[in-house]
Structures are given as C-alpha cells and as structure tokens.
Amino acid sequence: MCSAASNSKFSRIMVAIDGSEQSFKAAEYALDVAKSFGAQLYAVTVTSVPESYRLKQEDVLKKSGEMADSMNDAKMWFEKFNHAAKLDNIELRTELINSHRPVDYVILEYAEEKNIDLIVVGTRGRSRFKKLLLGSIASSVVTYAHCPVMVIR
C-alpha cells in the first residue's frame, strides 16, 4: 500500500506533461494539490526516441529535428510551470526524459524511482490515437501505477 494512503498526505507528486491541453490542466491541478499538501512536485516530459539502428539515415536526421523541437517545447513549458510554482512556494523538479521505451513505462519507472505518492495525468495526450474514455498512456498509468493516480479532464 502506498504511504500516502496510510498518512492521507501526499509529499511527492508527479505530473506528466506532453504539451496537450489536458496535460496543462493536469499540471495546474497538480500545482494546487502540491500547494494544499506542501508537497514536492515533479514535472516530467517523456520524448519517445526510436532505436536508431532500425532507422535509415534520413529518418535519423528527421527524428533528430523533431526531438530538438520537442525538447525546446518542453523547456518552454517547464519555464512557465516553474514560474507558477515559485509564486506558490512549491518545490518543483523538472525532468525531460528521452527514451526508446514506451512513454507509459518511463513514467511508471520514474514514479517508482522517486517514490512518488501521487501521479497526475491528463485524460488524453498529444497522440492521435484515442481510446473511448482515456488515452492509452493515461490508461496504462492508472492500471500499473504503484500509487494513486489522479486523472484530469
């Protein structure tokens, strides 16, 4: 059982941000929850990087450009988010993770490594594929997380 459940207090909250409107709503909500509990907040963006040995040279160059764009976008999101956290005296740690592993796996692994008490995610992200009620990443995080998950619409 998660330590947050037994203490009814969250001390380490993580929010996954991917640039979608839902992830920004989740980030705002995570700020409010962190402020309410005096919790440390972790904001994570995961960029999916295909394994290069499977790509042609022109694909590697294209993906490199896309990754650079994603990283720049994430830096802008984090700067804005960091400013909002400072205004509320919230300790914020931001993390941009590039991985060839599935995004949901990376989020779950990070949450376990950092001993996160609560994960906050948006209902759907930037991917074009949508499930009926939840996006595939949110659904997987809800299913496999070691701690409570708050899904924000």
Going across the major beta sheet, what is the strand order? 3-2-1-4-5
Helix content: 40-55%
Q: How many extended strands?
A: 5
Query: Would you state the CATH class?
Result: Alpha Beta
**Structural class by SSE content:** alpha/beta
Shape: globular
Topology, pairings included?
Layout: H1 3-7, E1 12-16, H2 21-37, E2 40-48, H3 57-87, E3 92-99, H4 103-113, E4 118-122, H5 136-144, E5 149-152
Parallel strand pairs: 1-2, 1-4, 2-3, 4-5
Helix pairs in contact: 4-5
Task: Give a written overview of the molecule.
The protein is of the alpha/beta class and 153 residues long. It has a single domain, classed as HUPs (Rossmann fold), CATH 3.40.50. It has 5 helices and 5 strands. The protein has a 5-stranded parallel beta sheet with strand order 3-2-1-4-5, sandwiched between helices. Helix 4 packs parallel to helix 5 (136-144). The two termini are 26 Å apart. The relative contact order is 0.23. Residues 1-6 and 127-133 have low confidence and may be disordered.
Task: Give the structure's gist in a few sentences.
The chain has five helices and five strands, in the order αβαβαβαβαβ.
What attributes characterize this protein structure?
Rossmann fold; 153 residues; alpha/beta; 5-stranded parallel sheet; 20% strand; globular
